[in-house]
Amino acid sequence: MPGTVRGPRAVAGGAIGGGRMADERQAGAAGAPATGAERPGRRGRLRPVARAASRLADRVPAPWGFVLAVFVGSKVVLSLVGVIALSAWDNVRGAPPAVETTMRIQQHEVSPHRWISLWFAWDSFLYDHLARMPLDEPWRNFAFPLLYPLLARPFAPLLGGHTAWALLLVSNVALVLQLYYAHQLGGRLLATGDRGRLRGTGEQGGGEALARDDPAAGRRFTRYLLLLPAAFLFQAALTESVFVCLALAAFWYAEQRRWLLVGIVGYLLALSRSVGFLVVVPLALVLLRQHGYRLGPRALGRYLRVGWPLVLVPAGWLTFMAFCRWQSGDWYAYKHAQERGWGISVQNPLTVILDGLTRGSPGDAVRVWFAVAVLVIVVCGLRWAELPYLVYTVIVVLVPLSIGPPVYRSLLRYLIAAFPVGLVLARWARRATVDTWLTAALALLQGALFVVWLTYWTHFII
Predict the structure, then answer these.
(1) How far, in Å, CA of 179 to CA of 227, rounded?
(2) pLDDT tens digit string along 213-227?
(3) Domain locations in the chain?
(4) For residues 381, 383, 384 and 387, what is the CA-based torsion angle, rounded to 10 degrees?
(5) Radius of gyration of the chain (CA)
(6) Alpha-carbon span 205 to 239, nearest angstrom
(7) How far is the C-alpha of 157 from the C-alpha of 166, rounded, in Å?
(8) How many CB atoms lie within 10 A of CB 365?
(9) Which 3-state string (H, E, C) describes 85-153?
(10) Which residues does the annotated region (Disordered) include (predicted)?
């Protein structure tokens, strides 16, 4: 404030001859020493900036301020760790081995800046190829669903034609939206105490939350979703953030009984990954729970009248199958491309788990133990009202395992789709002490896996 600045200067400036020291002592006694007279001036200049920043923050609607802060914070930390880890490998001979240098060259072609290029690995370059394929020519690559590369196409011209950058932009925008839906859904499902339990019965009000949503619980779930062991892949140029964003959005709108939106989002979900169309099963369970799991004739009619948009979910994958038929004459071109490219064949997922634990390499066993841990956590931690989320987790864990041993190297990537694990961890971490230790442990685990992923030539996470 101007008056605050002038006061000390007036006192210090009022010294005459030999009385200067006495006046300075008076100024010091008044709490405003002459030697610090400029500090209030600097503070005065900073106060308007602080007030403007505060007003800007107040205008950001909840929970976007928290969501953006978590996103930016995680991006900065992971990018910094990644650049440091890659720089450390520069001084190690044979890293990467001579036969594994192709990906390093591809990364440099994407960008010479490591804090950008480090987010591209493995399937990222295949999606970049799909995003650049002309749409007016016959399509020959059916091994990957279409949604992710198609979403990148409109953004590429805005980025100078860089389809790879457009893919990274899509993934990170999807991550921001994913964190928003996580906050909303977590606050609804984790509302504390008996008041927060879902009723699950009743014609009109059944299934509604008995209490307001719990923002603190929503924030915890959002954090733990980003602390899952391989959650750094949400920020990479891969489909994980798009898939989980759409899954969370579908469940959020289902909990709100906005079934037309559920159908639209579910259609896109099925176009993003093959397992997406099976999410119709847990979404249907949300509808059943909201009406007390009644199965009489009147109830079935109500389900059809209210939940008919759920047919759009499998229609998404049927659209991709029709595209395959149109372009290749083969409804199952996706399946056949997977079989030719990676030797994939449908198997019993339980057998694949057992083989990974008993016959596979130590690395395979570690990956499979992560899958077992996911299933155990959700079985132990979810409540009866959250049965749809248990079924969802079983689907996104066991379906990838059904493709056989080729899944092992990508298993940790597939497991981050099991977002209900974050719900359980957020519930267990209601106490501050548990929250602190669990957060620290998961952060260290993720950091270690992130460094392993950056050393792509280990093939531990593909």
Answers:
(1) 12
(2) 899 999 999 999 999
(3) 1-59, 157-458
(4) -60
(5) 28
(6) 37
(7) 9
(8) 15
(9) HHHHHCCCCCCCCHHHCHHHHHHHHHCCCHHHHCCCCCHHHHHHHHHHCCCCCCCCCCCCCCHHHHHHC
(10) 1-45
